[in-house]
């Protein structure tokens, strides 16, 4: 978007404050939204409220053991409740499936590259890793899928922001690591990507590659401002993905993958649930025909719910209960 909005029906405030984490990637995302909004609404000044979240502070424990990725958004949501901020910018894959009362996702921005990236200083791809090679990832989703295809690898937890993870790789703590392609691209670290994993091997996380903007659900002025940022096809895809995850009662840090695509008038959703050891990997797939009407959102969510029920019938509930138990 590079044109300003002059719609007289939209009330434009003098200033708008974005709550954001202080990590380099989070700041890139916040500045991206800031620039977009200032381009659309040139009379509005956009400020950043930089914050440190609990998820940023606890770096020596796997996320699944301390509450999942929701730990990265709680402090930002407090700033919204307390009206210290008007909006918060998130990587959608970090946003819990059920939002706190009074908050909503006001916009889903166009999805960037959704894949996972193989990063190594020695090896070109997963196939090159020898028996016992140490592979780092912060994601149970990646762990279960890669362990299913490469049971000979030693997969270990890897926490920290992108720079911290790359530093641990460079220090020799890991033979290779897996990161989100979009994060590396946004930070202009394209050269660190040795190989993008095909989604047949590593199906992306629900919402991966997409940014979402959270705001107060009763703030009509802000909702109007954000409405023009919505990317229709991204919105439909992530609504289907999140409905699947929500029906599975899965959080952000569980071995669940969900990825929807649109080709012509067809929206296709694929979902997976796997045991952490990789021995079991359940799969489901379905599609709907889009009518390009307001009904499409509800139909997309129903598709997600249908896939979740199929995965539950295959035994996903037992896998997830075991994960939560641990």
Number of strands: 13
Helix content: 25-40%
Strand content: 15-25%
Oligomer: single chain
Quick check: average pLDDT?
Answer: 92
Q: Please provide the ordered H/E string of secondary-structure elements.
A: EHEHHHEEEEHEHEHEEHHEEEHH
Largest sheet: 5 strands, mixed
The geometry reads as: globular
Number of helices: 11
Report the radius of gyration as a whole number of Å.
20 Å
Structural class: alpha/beta
Q: Reading side by side through the largest sheet, how are the strands ordered?
A: 2-1-3-10-4
Q: Give the distance, in angstroms, between the N- and C-terminal Cα atoms.
A: 45 Å
Runs with pLDDT <50, length 5+?
A: none
Q: Can you tag this structure with a few keywords?
A:
single chain; 326 residues; alpha/beta; 5-stranded mixed sheet; 11 helices; 13 strands; 34% helix
Describe the structure concisely:
By secondary structure, the chain is of the alpha/beta class. Helices cover about 35% and strands about 25% of the residues.
Commentary on this structure:
The structure is a single chain. 34% of the residues lie in helices and 23% in strands. It has 326 residues and is an alpha/beta fold. A 5-stranded mixed sheet has the order 2-1-3-10-4, sandwiched between helices. The longest helix has 20 residues, at 295-314. It is globular and about 60 Å long. The model has no long low-confidence stretch (mean pLDDT 92).
């Amino acid at each position: 978007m590079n044109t300003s909005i002059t719609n007289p029906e939209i009330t434009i405030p003098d200033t708008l404050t974005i709550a954001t984490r202080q990590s380099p990637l989070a700041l890139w995302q916040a500045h991206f939204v800031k620039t977009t909004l200032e381009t659309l609404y040139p009379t509005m000044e956009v400020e950043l409220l930089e914050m440190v979240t609990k998820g940023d502070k606890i770096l020596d424990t796997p996320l699944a053991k301390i509450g999942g990725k929701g730990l990265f958004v709680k402090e930002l949501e407090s700033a919204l409740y307390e009206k210290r901020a008007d909006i918060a910018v998130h990587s959608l894959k970090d946003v819990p499936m059920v939002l706190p009362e009074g908050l909503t996702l006001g916009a889903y921005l166009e999805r960037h590259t959704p894949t996972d990236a193989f990063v190594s200083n020695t090896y070109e791809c997963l196939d090159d890793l020898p028996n016992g090679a140490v592979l780092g990832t912060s994601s149970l989703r990646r762990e279960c899928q890669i362990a299913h295809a490469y049971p000979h690898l030693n997969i270990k937890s890897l926490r920290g922001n992108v720079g911290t993870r790359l530093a641990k790789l460079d220090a020799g703590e890991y033979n290779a690591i897996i990161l989100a392609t979009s994060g590396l691209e946004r930070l202009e670290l394209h050269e660190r990507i040795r190989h993008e994993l095909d989604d047949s091997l590593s199906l992306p996380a629900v919402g991966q590659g997409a940014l979402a903007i959270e705001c107060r659900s009763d703030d009509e002025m802000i909702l109007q401002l954000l409405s023009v940022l919505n990317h229709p096809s991204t919105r439909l895809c992530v609504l289907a993905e999140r409905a699947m995850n929500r029906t599975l009662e899965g959080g952000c840090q569980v071995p669940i993958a969900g990825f929807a695509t649109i080709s012509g008038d067809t929206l296709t959703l694929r979902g997976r649930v796997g045991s952490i050891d990789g021995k079991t990997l359940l799969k489901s797939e379905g599609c709907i025909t889009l009518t390009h009407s307001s009904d499409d959102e509800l139909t997309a969510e129903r598709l997600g719910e249908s896939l979740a029920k199929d995965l539950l019938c295959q035994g996903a509930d037992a896998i997830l209960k075991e994960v939560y138990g641990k």
